[in-house]
Structure formats: C-alpha cells, structure tokens
Records
---
Amino acid sequence: MEDDQTGCPMGEGPSATHPNSAHPDSAQPGQDGGDRPRRRSAVTCVRRGLAQSLRRPVRAVERLALRPWAVRRELIGQLLDDPASRQRIMTGLRWRQIDRADFDRQTPTDIEEIRGFEDCHWLFESGPPNCSLSQLRFDEAADLYHRIVELDHPRVAELGRYKGGTTLLLAAAGAEVLSLDNDADGGQRQFVPALQRALERFGLEDQVEPVVADVLDYEVDRSSFDMVLLHCTPDYDLSWGAFRHWWPSVKPGGAFIFHLTPELPGEVQMVHELQHDPSWSDVAFEPDLHGENLYARKIAP
Ligand SMILES: C[S@@+](CC[C@H](N)C(=O)[O-])C[C@H]1O[C@@H](n2cnc3c(N)ncnc32)[C@H](O)[C@@H]1O
C-alpha cells in the first residue's frame, strides 16, 4: 500500500519498491541498469514525508510575508506555539542543517587546539534557535567563555541581563560579573530570584552582582572592568550614550564588546562612525566579528 502523501510505501518498511511510475524518481531505472524502479532508502522516505507535512506550515509562513511585521510576528508565534507545527518546522530545520554541514567548510582556522568543549562549538549550528536563558549564539558564547577562561578572574560588566543565562555563563568561566538591567520592559527584575537560585546551586553567587539600573545612570569607576558587554540596545543614540558612559570604565588592554544585530542598524551605524572617527584614538577594533560580537580594545596610553 502506498502513502499518497509521501510517495513512499506504507507498512512495508522503508526499502520497499515504489510502484508509482509517475514520480520522477521512480521513473528512473534501478542501479543495476534494468527497468525495475529504484528502491528508496529510509532516509529518502522520511524526508519525503517530512517535506509533505511541512508544506502546509511553510505555505502559511510564505503567506505571512505579505503582512506587516507585527502581524507576522504574532502569527509566526502562534505557529510555533502549536506543538505539531513547531515539531515539523524544527525537524525540517534540523535536516537542512545536517545537509549543509561540511567539515571542510566548518573547521575553524582560528582554533589551533581543542582545549575544552568551547572549542567544539562549530560542530553545532549557531543562531537564534539556540538562544534560551542566554540570548547569545552558541559561537558567541563559546568565544566569550574562552576569552574569560584565559584571564585571571576578570571583572566583566554585562549591560542588558534579561533572564541572566549569559551572566551565569560569564561567572562559570571565572568572571566577577556586574549584571545590569533597567527593568524597563516591565519584568526583568522578576527574573533575578531564579537567577540567584541557579547561581547558588553552582556556588557562583559571590561572583555576581545583579543590578537594576539604567545603563546611562549607573555610576562607573574609571578603569574598573576588563570587559564590558553592551547587549541592551540596537538604538543609535543609546549605543553612543552607553559607549561614552562605559568606555572610561574599561581598563587599558581591556575590551568593549558590541553585540550587533545586523537587521537593526542603529548600533551598526554607531559602530561604523566610531571606527572612522580619529578622535577616539585609544579604540582598536578586532578585524573580525565573533558571531555577532565585535571587540573594541582599549589601547594603553
Ligand atoms: C537582548 S536582552 C539581553 C540579553 C542578555 N545579555 C543575554 O545574553 O541573555 C536586552 C536587555 O536589555 C535591557 N535594557 C534595555 N534598555 C536598557 C537600558 N537603557 N539600560 C539597561 N538595560 C536595558 C532590557 O530590559 C533587556 O532585558
């Protein structure tokens, strides 16, 4: 019996012969050069089934492209909230990622040896779907973790904490963390107790100072941080304001990290201007992005 949705045989196991000569694959001769239709592998059958079952949600997503962004966001949210649709979309994504995966392309040139799990991040996909308690991509998190491990208990400021996953990561790598959020979206403060419990669970609570304050209002001491991670705004004016306010707090040799969101260009524009403004003579940018993180080093006077 054939499943007319997938073109694959039902109830006969994945390697059963496909009887439908109308299908392009099945119209070809078998590998032995005879006229018998080719036998289809389990993987082909599963994929074909998935492609069929994905078609409906994918069409729905395509139709969304015609709608305003706020409506699209709401509808995509509804689609992802439906467990069956979400499962199909995620499974489709997984297959695509495996298909594209390639050691020759993915093996990093800037990692000389594997010192720990963080040097294996490139075996995995990095991007929005990996974000959860931490809003960092997997490659950004690995890079940041490694830089902190290399330093001796550095002092790090995270500007924009949200739920605090990155705060915990920084502490786990050995940093003393000032973790700041302004609570403006009405609720970030409520996440602090859960973060505290998680920090205590792993004995990291003494390394973290969670602060509720605006990035522009918090009083900073000069040369007090080895790293400052700006992750609270894609806004042009606020990015300039935060940089001007926090740059003096970076120690000579230390780093200010911009978390850039390419599709939200305000901060990208601000960084572009900074890079081309000679009056900021103590700022030296690393040439490459690490994920979406861009590192500006403070040149010692
Ligand atoms: C992208 S989230 C931070 C994600 C977090 N760094 C992580 O990696 O998981 C941005 C956060 O910045 C906070 N925020 C926005 N504007 C701010 C401001 N002016 N001062 C302080 N925090 C702000 C928001 O409340 C939000 O929680």
---
Amino acid sequence: MLKSGLLALLSAALLCASTLHTFAEKARSPKASHPDPQNQASQPTDLATFEARQLPSLLVTYKNLHAHPELSHFEVNTSALLADALRKAGYTVTDHVGLYPDGTHAFGVVGLLKNGPGPTLLVRGDMDALPIIEETGVPYASHVLTKNKSGKEVGVMHACGHDIHTTVLIGTARTLAEARKDWHGTLMIIGQPSEETIDGAKAMLADHLYDRFPRPDRIIGLHDTNLHAAGTVGLTAGPAMASSTSIDVTIFGIGGHGSMPNLGRDPISLAALFITEIQTIVSREQDPRDPSVVTVGDIHGGTKRNIIPNEVKLELTSRAFSDKSRQVVIDGLRNMAAGLATSANLPPDKAPKVEVLEAESTPVTFNDPAMAAQVRATLVQPSAPKTYSQTSRSWARKT
Ligand SMILES: [Zn+2]
C-alpha cells in the first residue's frame, strides 16, 4: 500500500499539474502561450526533482497519519495537520467546513491557491479511518482504541488508505504551488471528512461550500487500490463506482411457542423465504446488461431456541450502475415483501416494512468522459514515470 501510495502521489501531482497546464494554455494570451526559449522563467518547473525532495517528509507524514487514525466525524488532528501543511505551502485555508444534520460541525478543509485568471480545479481527498483493529504488524501500525457512537470500544485503522490520500493532497498542493508559474487559474484542495459514513461531503455542501468558495470547473479525486500492481494508475471513463443503497427490512410475525407454530406466524421462516426469493431480483428481474447486486449482510431475530419471535430485522445493501437498475431492486424488494404478507396471510399491520435509507446511500460515481480522456492523455505521455491501465467498473464502496 505504501509503495503504491507514493506512486499515487506522484501521479496525482503530475496529473493535476498537467490538467491545470492544459487549462492554462486555454487561458493564456496567444503571445504568452509561446514562451521565449531565451527566458529562464519560461522553463517549466522541474517537478521530478521537487517531488523527489518532498518524498522523505511525505513518508514521515504518511506514517504519522497511519499511526494516529481518527474515525469519521472525529478528524480533529488529521484535518489540523492538513490545514497546517496547506497554509505552509501558501494556500488560503479554511477549516471546520461542514455542517451535519444534528448541527455539529465537520472537519472539512478547503485550501485555495489563486493564481491568475483561468478555471478552478478541485482536488479532493478523504481523511477518516475505519473502526478496525490493525493487525498488520508494521512498525507504524495503529494502536488506537476509541469508543464508537454506541459507546463500544473499537480499534481504529486507516484500512482504506485515507492516510495515503491526505498525504497525496499535501504533496500535490506543495508541487503545484512550487510550479505555479506553469499554470494559471484557481486550485482548490479539499480534505473531505466522514467519507466512510458518507455524510462528510453532504455536510460540506450543507455548509454552503460552493457559495463560500469557488464552484469548480473540474474535479479530480483518486483512491488507492490493491487491485492494480504498484506503479500503475487506473482510470475509468463513465460509470466508475456503483451506487450504494442501504435498505432495512423488518419482517413481522406473530410470536408464540416453538412447539405450536400453527398458532402464530413465524417471521424467521418468512425471512428465510424472503432472502431466497430476493435472489431472483438480480437473476430474473434485472436487465443482464445493466446488472445489480443485492446482499443481506445482517439478520437479527429471536431470543431463544423454542420461542417464535415477533419480528426479524434484515440489513441489506444494493449496488447498481444506473438509477434504473437501482430502482428495479427497490421495487423488487417491495413487491416480494408484499407477496410474503399475502402468502403468510398476515394482517395488513403485520406486512413487512422495506425502508430505503437515502441518508446512507450514494449515487453512481460517473467520471466525465472528456475529463477522463484528458487525464489519460497525460498518463500515457512518454515522459510520465508510470504506466496506465484502463480500470473496470467497481462494485466496491465503503458503505
Ligand atoms: Zn476509502
């Protein structure tokens, strides 16, 4: 992860520099776009040398972040570290950007570098870690324990690589500040909080992000991955990551004694039927050319082997690459839940409840094809110190 992370850093810096440079070419006057070879100032900044000089301190930053992860909603020190690094690199920084629905502030960071006329490019990375006990055994492993929202003690680990992303943001910010004579426009670096709980970006928008700061013309984000070899950069045009929809299903029954099931309605056997039946949404309802996934990841019901409970709760996640296939899943779940009530002859007030948790759902990540082509052109330049691979669409999100 470390090696690929540092390569990602180099890639991101180069990628942003190139993108801004392309913007700059459009923004410059015709005269300015033909620099005088005699003029020393017109020589492009030696990014490779600058980045090589930066790597040791960025490695220290990465290990520090990895050893001190912070859960979503609690990115106090991570955001402060990022804000400080951006200020030192010459950016105008605003921290504590973001407002959650409960009125608490988020730890979003916005760093602006205005560098003459031209478009605004937003470079975004996330900062939060996951409630996992680290077992890697690396010297800089996290030993952090904390309490989650329920008061339960949990480990904390940067298992998703957001320590890499924060480091990449710092490296990118420094590199583009160093190379500012090579581009014009506004660079907007965003440290996004609470990606794992998927409410950080929403909190920043709710805090009037695009009223208080420029509305970007383009956005670049990256995520590390273990699906590609170190030294490669993946890129996807169009739908890149599936939408994630969280759904709660409650199956009601009529509780009683296990020896006399005929006197009640057993929600556990109904849940078993339901889980089996919903597999046909993907295999029989969905257009195979526009696939989806439905997974029941959590099931709770009952207290004792001989008692038929009153209800069973299921927690589901669904993935899709289009709004249409997402809706096929939701409709299928509702229809099959209604059918379950009919087949079990349950009274209307005992019909299963299907609840789509919109606040815990995200839409498809769709990469603008034109922008993707521009980035691709950057990555396949002979001078680029990396290889490029076309990345397939990904079902994985963190929710
Ligand atoms: Zn992540």
---
Amino acid sequence: MNIKPVALLFTVTLSACGQPSGDAQNENPRHYDPLRLAQGERTFHTHCSTCHGWNGEGQAGWQKPGPNGALLPPPLDNNGRTARLNSKQIMAFIRQGSPDGRGAMPAWENKLSMREIDDLTLWITSLWSDRIYLEWQTKIEQDAR
Ligand code: HEC
C-alpha cells in the first residue's frame, strides 16, 4: 500500500503547523479523509495505473503525440499538468475520457460511480507537493467555486 508517504507528509505538515509562526497562511489545507483516499488509490490501481503508472508517473514522451498521433498517458503527479484543472474538470475528464481522436483515455462514466470518480480525484490531488497543491487550491480550485 502506498499510503505511508502521504501519512508521513501529513505528520510533517501538521507538526509544521504546530510551530508558533504566527502565520495564518501556514494552516494545513490538506484534510483528507483517509478512507476516501485509500478507496481512490485502490480504484486507481485497479483501472488506471496500467496506463498512468503505479504512482501516477505517466509514460515517457507524454508531452508529444506518439507515432500514431495520439497522446500518451501523462503524469498525474507533480511532474504533470493536471493541477491546471479544477476538480470538476478533472472529474469531467475521467467521466468523458479524451476528446475524440486526441488520445486513448477511455471514458469511465458507465464503469465507475460518481463517488469512485470523486475519490480518484481526491487521490490524484494528494500526489501533489504542498507548493503545487496550495497554488492549485488558491488559483484554480477557489476560482471555480
Ligand atoms: C488506456 C490507457 C488509459 C487508462 C486505462 C486511463 N487513462 Fe487517463 N489518460 C490516458 C491518456 C492517453 C491521457 C491523455 C489524453 C488526452 O489528453 O486527451 C489521459 C489523461 C488523463 C487525465 C488528464 C490529465 C491531464 O493532466 O491532462 C486524467 C485526470 C486521467 N487521465 C485520469 C485517469 C484515471 C483516474 C483513470 C482510471 C479511472 C485513467 N485515467 C485511466 C490514458 C489512460
């Protein structure tokens, strides 16, 4: 199970919050429900990691279309660009898959429940560093609400 580093990250972030820095910005915004996170990870390993890699690292050469002109599975972690999408857009992408002919991302709306897609999205955001997550939370996610 891949939850340990995440749990460790929380411990570190939480203890950092305990410091008397007097800086409200330091408040930890990452309150994940461990059960939902574990479910998201399990669904990812069942349906998604064959393409996107076990830890969401994607496939080499994803920046450009492959020989057949289709896009390769991109990383969903810090090395990718997924944090440009708000959570509604990420969920819509998972539900609908690639726009016609662009890539090989299958549509999942008839195979996974909304709850499963929600948990998957939560797990994807948990892959990001605090810096990327905070930027996403303040610039992308908040604006979309
Ligand atoms: C058959 C291979 C394949 C499988 C299985 C697959 N994907 Fe993808 N995925 C892709 C490809 C290829 C793209 C890029 C397609 C595009 O941009 O049109 C992509 C793109 C994405 C994106 C957009 C990322 C970004 O930064 O633009 C997300 C989110 C995503 N996939 C999540 C998932 C999830 C969650 C699952 C499992 C439910 C999954 N994928 C299963 C191939 C796959």
---
Amino acid sequence: MITRGKQCLYTGVVGLVMTAMFLALSMRSGSNVPVPETYSNADSTSSVALPATQREEIDLPSHPSPAKPVANPKTKQNIQPVRVINEKPAVEASKYPEWWLRAWPRSAVASLLGVFVGDQPLFPPCQDGNQGQKGYTFVEPRNYLARSKSPCWYEDPKGGKGLRCAPYFYLAGVAKGGTTDLYRRIRLHPDVMFGTEKEYHWWDRDRYGSSSKDLGSGIVNLQGGMSLRDYLSRITGRDIREVAAELRDGGSSVKVFSDGSPSYLWDSFYWVALDGNQGCMEPRVITGHHIRHFYPAAKIILTFRHPTPRLYSRFLSRIPRTPEFRKATSLDFHKFVVNGVRMYRECFEKWSIRHCTYNHTLYQDAKVRLVEGMYPVFMADWLRIWPKEQMLILRYEDYSQNMESVLRRVFDFLGLAPLNRTQWDVVLAQEKYNTGEMYEKVGKMLPETKLILDQFYQPFIYQFAEIMNDSRFLWAETSH
Ligand SMILES: *[C@@H]1O[C@H](CO)[C@@H](O)[C@H](O)[C@H]1NC(C)=O
Ligand SMILES: *[C@@H]1O[C@H](CO)[C@@H](O)[C@H](O)[C@H]1NC(C)=O
Ligand SMILES: *[C@@H]1O[C@H](CO)[C@@H](O)[C@H](O)[C@H]1NC(C)=O
C-alpha cells in the first residue's frame, strides 16, 4: 500500500475555497428533496452537507515517486517512462476527500501514470502462463497505401482491386459533449467523407457477438459479431468510389473517413473477455489498444464537458428510449443519482476507482451514466496508449462559446485544406444540433442533485486537470 501523503498531489487552498462554496450553497437549499444519509451531517442545519471527511485537514502532499521503466512484454525492452504528470501540478493546490485518497492508489496503474505503452498492455500480466489462450487478438494492421491520407489498402493488391479504407480520425468522446454538432460540421469539409452514420460502435460493441445483456450475466461471446469488412463498408459508404477513382488513376487521395462513436473512450466493458486481461481485477487491455494497434497513426478528437451537466443532459437524452425513464422527472433523476453515487462510493470503499469505473455490473445497476464522467481514469489510460500529438482535446464549453475557433483547430489538427470564406459560411450556418426539447418537459436539474454531483465529481475533476496538466479542466469558470 502506498501512503496517503505520497498520493496526495496538492495542497489545500483550492479545496478550502471549494468547501466554503459548497457549504454556502448547501445553506441556501432547504427543500424537501430526499437526501441520502451520507450527505446529511449532524453538525449542519442544512439538508445537504458535506461528509465530515471533506472538511478534514489533509497532510501536506509530496509528489509521487517517478515512474520506473517497465519491460515491454513483447520486445522485452524497457519502455522509458514519459511523465505526463507535471512535477509542478497544473492545480496550484487542492484537497481530495479521504475516500479518493484510499481508492485511487489501489489501482494497478496508479504508480504507472505517464508511462507510455502504445498498444502494449498497461501493466504486467495478472497471472502466470499463456495470456493468449482465449484466442481473441487484435485486428492486424494492413499495408496502408502511401498515396492515401486515410488508411486504405487493396484486398487484391496485384489487381488493384477491392479497395478498403478505415477511419483516419475518431471523434471518440464524450457523449453530450457536443460531438454530434461538431461532427456534422466537420463533415461539411469537402475532404471529409460522410460514411453512413455518425456512431458505429464497432470497436467497443458490434464486433463482439455478445449483447450488453449477456455481459450483465457474465457470458461474453466474442465470436459472431459484425465483421471488419462490414464495419468498413459502413464507414466508407458510397464515398469509397470517389477515393478508388482517385487512386486508380495513379493519383493520391486526401479524402478522410472517420468514426464518431463517443463511447470508445469509456466503453471497454468487454474487457473481462479480451485477450491479455485474464485473471485481472481491472483491464490491462482496453478498446483504445485495439484501435491503436490497427492504425497507430489514427487521430483522436475528444470533447469534455463539466461532468455534472453532462450527466443530466445524458439522462434527458436517454428518456425516450429507456422504458424505465418514461415520464421521469428531475426528482426521479435525483433519486437515481443518490442511489448511483451510493453504489460507487460503496465500491470505492473496497476497490480502486479504476476497478469500479470499468465494472459493467455497476454501470448497469447505477442506471444513470455516472461512469462516463470519470474522465481521469480513461484519459490516464488513453494518454499512455496514444501520443499526445495525435489527440486533440477540446472542451464543450469553448465550442459553445466560439465554434469557429474550435473548428479551425479541428481542421488544422486533421491537416485538412483551408476553407475559403464561402465554405466557412456554409459550415457555420448549419443549424445548431438541438437536444433541448427534453429540458422543456423535465425542467432543470434540482440544486440538491447538482450539489451531490459536484461533490462526487470534484476529485475526478482535480485529477483530470492534473493528468491533462491544464487548469481549464477544473471548469472553475463554469456556472452550470
Ligand atoms: C505542463 O504545463 C506547463 C505550463 O503550461 C508546461 O510548462 C509544462 O511543460 C507542462 N508539463 C508537461 C509534463 O507537459
Ligand atoms: C463488479 O461489481 C460487482 C458488484 O459490486 C461485483 O459483484 C463484481 O464481481 C464486479 N465485477 C468485476 C469483474 O470485478
Ligand atoms: C471557395 O471554394 C469553392 C470550392 O473550391 C469554390 O467553388 C468557390 O468558388 C470558392 N469561393 C470563393 C469566394 O473563393
């Protein structure tokens, strides 16, 4: 076990300010919304108060010891640690609650943060012996044509026939982070091909034969899912002909294909059955590994949003297709949140944050998608798999405020030809993708719910800002 002092990365100033804010807020809320016992406090007259641990003084931090090189299991060569975590934290000072300080270091990756692995597993094997016995491995990369910007190849290279292309970029997260609106605009660029839809969910779900119901019962059938070929034909749609024609004439193609499934970042729920994860309590190999192995040069775009409003927005968007949520009110949401938070907090008492985050049973039982906002767990993993230069990390809040400047960064990152003013006008004139209809029906999130969620997510936000080395991910300016 690693001691608390070693793990605590920050000092207490920000934490104290936040605590004061929470307390001030909780004083004002006095309605009759049920509040779980863990959130009420005998010392307090308000209905929602911080747990006692939140107010405790926490030891002054020392920085974690530098990561040691780990042996790459395939090449047996040492992978040199590349520190992602800054020696001088992005967050000047802060304070984690006790439960976080106990649960975060229990993870097998806690001491390996910042150690780059590429498509190799995130930590050493969990059991001796043959790690490949389940027989499900990566989708192997192809001989990608140098003349095409997207990863393309011929099934019949001699005859120059059977062109296949895979995504050049992934808009891989997060749900309710503005990805639909962003994706619609990106695809108005003449070199971005449309494909057949936005979200394919192949890497995380459709390639496996199991349904998520099976996962719940512990049965995972990896065979019998959608083939790579079928996935790619959906990715390219009819636009493959345009690229094929460009290449057939001996020219090159700058057209790009893409996949905009925002679940790739967080959905590795089949991890229990994936090769390399045998005997583990948390995954060594996740969805991101598989994407990276197949096309190591892929570009990844991720948009993050403050996790509290994100969760509510996600809940609202799921109402029409979730029978259990029919006629749901903001009070129902509150009850789901109270229950979900309790379940995760119980898990965190016994297990690591990362173990609970990747646990599918908990994900399903919690009803509301709390997991999707546990950004530092996923980003710590993805930053070890993907080089930082291949990732563009955006904030929903910036996109909402200045769409054009964010889009410029996106087009630039993807290396797409600059648009002229007329083309920009078309991209910007596209009607905003609007999901506000449910807000009108259900109303705003209750302040009590917001308080519970802000408090629950607070250490995740701190850790996220630390992992990103960027204080904008504290969302300090956001009043949601
Ligand atoms: C973290 O950010 C600071 C300031 O933005 C920068 O100087 C430093 O190099 C960054 N550290 C890492 C490890 O990227
Ligand atoms: C996930 O959590 C549930 C409930 O806490 C537990 O019973 C189960 O063993 C966990 N699953 C895994 C794979 O750790
Ligand atoms: C902008 O580019 C498009 C596509 O290349 C072209 O048809 C159009 O004439 C250009 N408009 C201006 C104002 O340059």
